[in-house]
Amino acid sequence: MKNFRYINIILFTVFLSGSCSDDFLDKYPLDSVTNETYWQTEDQLKAALYPCYDGFQYELVMYPDIFGPDVEWGDLNSGLSKVPGGIHTALDGFPISSFWNYTYGHIFNCNNFLDHYDEAEVDQEVKDSYAAEAKVLRALQYFWLTSYYGDVPLVTKVISSSEAYGPRTPRAEVIGYIMDDLDWAAEKLGGEIPSGDDLGRINRWGALALKARIALQNEMWEVAAETAKEIMDNGPYALYDDYLALYRLNGDTEVNPANKEAIMFSLYAEDLRMHNLSGYICKPVDYIRFNASRRLVDAYLCTDGKPAKKGLEYYGQDNVTLSDLYTYPEQHYSDYFEERDPRMSLTLYSPGDEWPGGDDGDADVDVANPVFSLPRFAALQNNNRIGANGLTGFYFKKYNNPEIASDYNRDHTNINVIRYAEVLLIYAEAMFNIQGESLTQDQIDMTVNKLRNRVGMHPMVLSELSEWGMDLKTELHRERRVEMSLDGMGYFDILRWKNGDKLLGKAVIGPNVNVCENDLGGNPFPDNGVDEFGNIIYEKSRKEGGLRNFDPSKHYLWPVPYAERTKNENLGQNPGW
The whole model's pTM is what? Predict the structure, then answer.
């Protein structure tokens, strides 16, 4: 079933990239497959399109969540940890320079296709449908580029070296161009959910979903609302009953066709195209990479719809009614999971869960545990790697398949790019802004409450928010963070909301020190002390005398990479860098 597909990807990329080895050239002379002779049949068009789908690159889709407030990367010396800590620079290779190169590499593949596809002796309607997919994939790259860097060079064809030294194109112009592309693509693409050999390909609704996302990110509220509503009213997609399965092998659409929530996804196949996400998230040895942050834990409401604590959302506000269902300050690790939004236990490992992490943090050191009880900190476990050592004390369950977590690079779970749930939240946020920061209860019921009903969570009710001193904007933002954790939009949401000063540049924290002393026998990071709420600190912010910070005068954009500016002095630089 998975012939959409990877042997052809490899062959076509090698043929047209010019990166062949001498041995390969001996067998397949380049003059047999060139742009001048290749573009003739539909099969060739299909094969030429496959490299464009490499634009669903794992790092580009998943790593934006690491830059936001809800994921802490397991190595704080990595460039991935510098961005949310506000200590990245234009000199950083990864991710500052790498993401620029990744996206423009994928844009090249799309441009090469679009430069030549019309030469094929194929019906125009068929040719245009392939071109539409390439334009959507190119638009996604420009979404990432403009969100990170602002103004970027708009390259719409394969260019020569002499054409590569111009200035950056204003962000608004780039967005206008790709929005036109997405309109064109939506007209050319079919509306059926791709299946069989076409599984994983982009259809009309994928083009519109990306258009809605880009419109929202660029505050084009009316366009975002209208586009999202068209998908809601006329598209074939719907919420899938099993929230966790959306992030595991048993929910992949080729395994379970009942999953009609995945609008666009990066397709993986066992033994053909795989990744290591399960291992990065939780495995029975070493340090995990995707640590769930305490900020995310604190963001989950209680089952009655009230906040468990004020958190960063209502910091310093005295009029907010907190839930009586929650124990605060926490005394035991299990307290964090009592009476919380059900999505918390579907997103994070909680005490009593089947455990793929080997030895956990309980008293029987170096003995693998089949059931999770307590988090594991290396400093409290003889500094060994016989278990899933973490930084924050919390572990993601999403995208972690226990049966393959210990196998390196054997994960073939599809990775979501856009889910139908995001479309509902786009509509809610866009209408909120159109209507002067307000929503009707009916609008909440058709968006947010559909997501809550799926998991049996208390609905959002406007009268209750008012009674409890809760703010609608804050709760819409919370809903996106909770529903869409690990959907790759967490960082971009913060940039759009302009609340980086509230959520970024903060200390990396773990459980309350009382929890550590009562359940784990001590603070794993005693030299770093605790924050104002009694939470242990792994990495300090400036508030605690460390380096992590957020500067709103510069950190809403990344710097143009130094390596690119040395090649092209006309690129200029973003403010503050």
Answer: 0.94
Please report where in the chains the tokens 């035991």 appear, as a residue: 332
Per-residue buried b or exposed e for 4-28, using 16+ beta carbons within 10 Å of the residue's own CB: bbbebbeebebbbeeeeeeeeeeee
Nearest-angstrom CA–CA distance, 395 and 292: 5
Q: Does residue 61 carry a pLDDT above 80?
A: yes
Q: What is the pLDDT of residues 390-423, one digit of tens each?
A: 999 999 999 999 999 999 999 999 999 999 999 9
131-to-109, 138, 175, 199, 411 alpha-carbon distances in Å:
12, 10, 19, 17, 30
**106-140 burial by CB neighbour count: b if 16+ within 10 A, else e?**
bbbbbbbbbebbeebebeeeebbbbbbbbbbbbbb
pLDDT in tens, 323-365: 999 999 999 999 999 999 999 999 999 999 999 999 999 999 8
DSSP calls for 155-206: --S---GGGS--PPBPHHHHHHHHHHHHHHHHHHS--SPP-GGGTT---HHH
Q: Is the dihedral of CA 12, 16, 19, 24 positive or negative?
A: positive
